[in-house]
Amino acid sequence: MRPTVHLLSEELIERIVAEARDLLCTLGVEIHNPGVLELLHGHGARIDAAAQRAFFTPDIIDRSLESAPHGFKLYDSLGQEAVDLSGDRTNYTPGSAAITILDHGADRSRRPAAADYVRYAKLMCGLPNLASQSTAFIPQDVPEKIQDSYRLYLSLGFCEKPVVTGCFTVEAFELMKDLQLAVRGSAEALAARPLTIFSCCPTAPIKWSDVTSQNVVDCARFGIPVEYISMPLSGFMAPVTMVGSLIQHTAETLSGVAISQLTRPGTPVLYGGSPAVFDVRYETTPMGDIGTMMIDCAYNEIGKSLGLPTQAYIGLSDAKLLDAQAGFESAAGALLAALSGINNCSGSGMLDFESCFSLEKLVLDNEICGSALHLLRGITPKEDFPARARFEEMLAEGHLLISAHTRRHLRQEHYLPGPVIDRANKSRWAEEGGKTLGERARAEVERLVAAHRPVRLDSGVKQQLTRLMNAAALRAGIDRLPVSI
Question: What is the pTM of this model?
């Protein structure tokens, strides 16, 4: 039996959705994109052009939900199935778009460079509990105009896993789409075997910018999956109550679903977000707060009730260092996400309110996620009935260490973490150097980066990726990229 956790009753879910639908139809959505307003108008929405507002109809919402897929799969750069985003299947991926990186042993973060990103992408290849990579942090040694596309280029060049990514500008989408087409070979192949998910963020309260709404449309045109990252801040840019924040989150996310589905019915989508409670004491948005996690798990229930796969920024920490707070907050989120059945959990490796990335934390989080995935397997009998023979064997031998039954089921029944997690007794721990968590994590980072093998993309595909990226670099004012694949 799969263990689960639920926070909302069916009646409460229905009331939240009804209130959100009412907001979309009566107060409308502010959209700073004339093309999207025209799209909605063509499907029956009333438009207030001066206020840049679209007023939905119940029919728009219903048709959008009917055409949105109940799940979809991601495929790696070689075209092999890698991630199943359906049902209650839980997958983990790193957080995205951090602006700093924390070195092992440092007490301050710094601006990351392309070389850091390459180490991250190589490391991702050796972390089995993280099903996809993300464009985790922003290299600062390339012009801002190509920072989003360059991250995707490096991800594709150094790791075969699918990528959770996103655009900073409308113009960047074209190159990022072409990088994917270079890997897949055609638009049809890319739509059939999606390689990426694009994060698209509405603005609180119930608003879409020109860039983000255009990203939704552009992704839909090519069948590229989108995750909507609604970010209500409870008590600041959303009602202070969890229910009020969930109503706002539902309205913002449903508006994104409509834009996708009216552009291209059947576009794969994730009902996602990155909400937070607002800590009025420090004026911060704590992602490790239990209230934030409760909102994430609750809107996951709402998304599932609407028949949609889900995403959340969860399993990350507000700590500034790899310390006990980082472990506590990350583990709590990863476990709650698993028990809730969130399909795509973004956050591994992240510190400091989504702004800092740590490679050492990433390898620790890989073990946290492995433990959570093991929990989801639940407890089932495996040759346990009748029990007498097993106990007779133990009484006769004095143990079951080399029992055939033990050897058959040990690795399935027990989660055996890697060297980042200390399971030795104290004397052995001391004999082996008495390493701290940070030191063990650092050693594992170095081991996995050194063990990296080149991606198995065709050399012609790699050359095409580099031609595309070099051309973009020239347009951005530099004649040489810091790192090429």
Answer: 0.97
